Amino acid sequence: MSLKEATRSAVLDRVVKGEMTAAEGAARLGMSRRQIFRLKAKILTWGISSLSHGNRNRRPSNALPEETRAMVCAKAVGEYRGASLNHMSELLERIDGVRISAKTIGRILNDAGVANPHGRRRRKSHRSRERRERFGSLVQVDATPFEWLEDGKEWSLHGAIDDATGTVLSLRFEKHGCSAGYLRVMEDMLGTWGVPAALYSDRHTIFFSPKKGEELSEEDIMEGRKVPLTRYGKMLDMLGIEHIPALSPQAKGRVERLWGTLQHRLLVEMRVAGVRTIEEANGFLPAYIGTPQRTFHRGAGERDNGFSPLS
């Protein structure tokens, strides 16, 4: 019995015994005299225990079955381990046919003592660059090494993301971050979406030649270049794509944040799908690529498409 209920019981007991008037009891408990008379009649009929709430110790009608709670905990430390609460909610609905909110999952795991690997987001330490307004006006490319298959080996995931909408345009696994991976991503993007207006990358030698003293061609001199183009740079030049170098990882924050998302979500999705080899992983990517779009896509500021057809 709570302190409030104990106080109410003591006062009403005195009212019932005639040691206190109904008016005095009402003033003491902050109730009306009518309420006091109702409670007095209830006590005389059912006893003092009738003052306890009728639903006490009863299981709520909308409470999750214990079997479901146990399943959530088992999934959280099993095949869904590492997934955020929101991602786990999506997986449970899509794969297991169980609809549970992320907040409820958090409460279940907290009650069971299962730690959530995804704490609160840290505040941004810098102001984000404004997004482009038009889909296809700027594409960010990058690669990230990670133990994607959870086998102790690192593979590099190459990718391209639209700056305006966050649309993942292409993904490709390779053993290392390499020209072949970026070229395959570009080929896939050109065939699916078209030619972007500009491309944003780091200053890796795949993109920009370090050979400043190398003899320039007449074309390079006419174009005002101080270093020759790489193989990748020549391809961009031929397609008429503006190539913009990023001065820091933070500058290409869209694609950097994509890697953080995929290192949690894609890892779990491939585990659940039974992906074991890099060939299976590359075969899995085309079907998966639409999943982050549905969750994180945002509309562009302008309706016009910045991609031009590949002629």
SSE run: HHHHHHEEEHEHHEHHH
* Largest beta sheet: strand ordering: 3-2-1-4-5
The CATH topology of the largest domain is what?
Nucleotidyltransferase, domain 5
Radius of gyration: 32 Å
Shape descriptor: elongated
CATH class of the largest domain: Alpha Beta
Give the integer mean of the pLDDT values: 84
Distance between the termini: 79 Å
Account of the 3D structure:
The protein has helices spanning 3-17, 22-29, 33-46, 66-77, 85-95, 102-112, 179-192, 218-222, 231-239, 253-273, 278-288, 290-296; strands spanning 139-146, 155-162, 168-174, 198-201, 242-245. With 311 residues, the chain is α/β, with parallel strands linked by helices. The chain has 3 domains: 3-51; 66-112; 139-296, Nucleotidyltransferase, domain 5. A 5-stranded mixed sheet has the order 3-2-1-4-5, sandwiched between helices. The mean pLDDT is 84.
